[in-house]
Amino acid sequence: MKMRYSEKERNTKETKIKLSLELDRTGSGGLTGTSGIGFFDHMLNSFAVHGGFAVALEMTGDLNVDGHHTVEDVGIVLGSLFAEILGSRSGIARFAHEYVPMDEALAFAAVDVSGRPFLHFDSSACPSIAEGQLIGEYDASLTVEFFRALAFNAGFTLHMKLEYGSNTHHAVEALFKAAARAISAAARETGDGVLSAKGVLG
Length: 202
Prior knowledge:
alpha+beta; four-stranded mixed beta sheet; 32% helix
């Protein structure tokens, strides 16, 4: 099986990022490196472990301002790596969905990796997410910014909903894990060509 891997560097006045992504690492996936935001690193590692991805990150960001550019720009680069690796989207499952519980929280994610970008994100069951509760030094409201950047740069139609949950940490982590598992399942290789009635995706 051909290794599905890509890496990219992106440098702006706000962040400098070198990121690599390898799919199909179930059992040994995870994050190496750091964004500089502890809880965000925890979420990236959970995303990688539960998706079966190997993610390596080297970056510096303008954390003296806040975490927004760091979180969003990691989403941009990670999304672009998914787009490069999946290419024409031929020979993959394309659609998937997952429910993930974490203690009192339950999150849902559904994805179509067709190349058409869209995000629906509903965390209203835990208002502290949109209100920007701090989890360590991570602003919970940046969760939607990460997934918007990921979906639009990867070309994913991604629907995410927190069904319920009161602990902000649990709710955010369940959302990251649900998205990771759905994306991993949708990217699974089938060898069946392009899954589309019109013969092409996008």
